[in-house]
Amino acid sequence: MCVTFKQIYQSLVEKQGVLIVDNSEQLTTTILKLLNEQNFCQQLGNNALTFLNENRGAMARLNQQISQLLVA
Hints:
Elements: H1 5-14, H2 24-36, H3 38-54, H4 58-71
């Protein structure tokens, strides 16, 4: 099973480990919120870290699958 960046990104969105902004004004507001609201910033970081920990080793598994296909 090949996982695309789009699938990874969507999973991060679902886990609330990433923020989406549509323009420079939203980007500014979001950056200020992250700088001024420590709990919000920590929660976002924790959500992203949880996602990464849940998917740790995915690249190694993908490399192993590719290697098996190349040998076959």
